[in-house]
Amino acid sequence: MQLDQAKKYYEQAVKLKPTYSEAINNLGTVYYAAKSYRRAISQYKKAIKLAPDSASIHSNLGTAYFARSQWDLASQEFREALKLDPNVFEHHSTYGVMLQERSVAEKAKFHYGLAVLYAQDGRVELALQYLRKCLEEGYKERKKLPEDPAFASMRELPEFKQLMALEPRVL
Predict the structure, then answer these.
(1) Pair 31, 39: CB distance under 8 Å
(2) Is 3-84 CATH 1.10.3720.10?
(3) Domain ranges of the chain
(4) Which of 15, 36, 56, 125 is close enough to 95 for a disulfide, judged by CB 3.0 to 4.6 Å?
């Protein structure tokens, strides 16, 4: 968490090798941690130009867009990340840190978004897992979930009905 020093070293690495996508991504992560989301987005975009097939970088870019409330752009990047690596949100990457600067309300919305993406991708177990997380984190639009078009294919599943009937304790 020595962000100033990390920034200095990543900048040096990029000067030595301008095509070093991991260092550029990590520089974006330093900006993200400092809540300089616009700069983070700029770095992530540079990294993606160098490594367009990196699910981790697309995920980081989506996270930065999410932090700026740019939902459509965030969703687009998360979809791309999932397309490149279906388990990108299920394992930790060596490319930087995600989701360290989130309030509980934002985490709930983030997990709702992941539930939607997984439901649309037909990955029901993960969709249910993230729905549960968003409810435990106090998702504010809980009453709309049973009618949400994203979950149409899941509505009749006993697990979905059970989840909608529960009143999870907000963590």
Answers:
(1) yes
(2) no
(3) 3-84, 104-165
(4) 56
